[in-house]
Amino acid sequence: MSKPPVITIDGPSGSGKGTISQMLAKKFGWHLLNSGALYRALAIAAKNQGVSLKDEAQLAQLAKKLDVAFVASSVFLSGKDITKALTLETTGEMASQIAVFPAVRKALIETQKSFKRSPGLIAEGRDMGTVIFPDATIKIFLEASIEERAQRRYEQLLKLGFNVKLADLLSEVAERDLRDRTRIEAPLKAADDAIIIDTTHLSIKQVFDKVLKIIRNTNR
Questions:
Q1: pLDDT digits over 104-150, tens only?
Q2: 97's torsion region: left (phi>0), alpha (psi -120 to 50) or beta?
Q3: What is the rounded distance in angstroms from the CA atom of residue 108 to the CA atom of residue 106?
Q4: Angle at which helices 35-49 and 102-113 pack, to 10 degrees?
Q5: What is the 3-state secondary structure (H, E, C) of the chain?
Q6: Per CATH, domain 6-208 is 3.40.47.10
Q7: Which of 35, 80, 137, 193 is surrounded by the most beta carbons within 10 Å?
Q8: pLDDT at 184 over 90
Q9: Do residues 97 and 44 lie in contact, with contact meaning Cβ atoms separated by under 8 Å?
């Protein structure tokens, strides 16, 4: 029996990987894994339960019993809709802090792998193609300039009703990039066999069309 195919979409925050992954999952009718949302959900769970973001052991235990569900475009933690809370810059910052812990990453590995089911999986994150699904059918790595990614995040948060400053976002994106790319455990980087797409000057449709072309050429 053949294994379900997996397409990984990795890249830094604001590169467009989340939107592209949702579009692909919808087009193919496949399952979707937003690994970043798992870490953000864990950060929220830790905050709710009073667990320190510096306590690796307690965070790992919390990760092992994390109850997260993806329903359409919404995310639920223990049955509660946390979709909007996940978009907060503070949540992303907390998630980036706890993602550096090896025990936390190890605890979430099996959770992430469990999303690999028929008919297929679109896995989005920072180490999907390098660590979680190294045998993925197709690996895509999206990147964009820090300035462009901060601008995208700024516009996204404004639409959601948040009062933010572009300068603050630019600084936060740069700091998160540095932390994600230099961490010892599963650093953010493109897999050796990943196809890299710079989305800085591309619309979402243009990126989606490029990814679709890659998928179709691979399946010929």
A1: 999 999 889 989 999 999 999 999 999 999 999 999 999 999 999 99
A2: alpha
A3: 5
A4: 120
A5: CCCCCEEEEECCCCCCHHHHHHHHHHHHCCEEEEHHHHHHHHHHHHHHHCCCCCCHHHHHHHHHCCCEEEECCEEEECCEECHHHHCCHHHHHHHHHHCCCHHHHHHHHHHHHCCCCCCCEEEEECCHHHHHCCCCCEEEEEECCHHHHHHHHHHHHHHCCCCCCHHHHHHHHHHHHHHHHHCCCCCCCCCCCCEEEECCCCCHHHHHHHHHHHHHHHCC
A6: no
A7: 35
A8: no
A9: no
CB-CB contact of 208 with 20 (8 Å) = yes
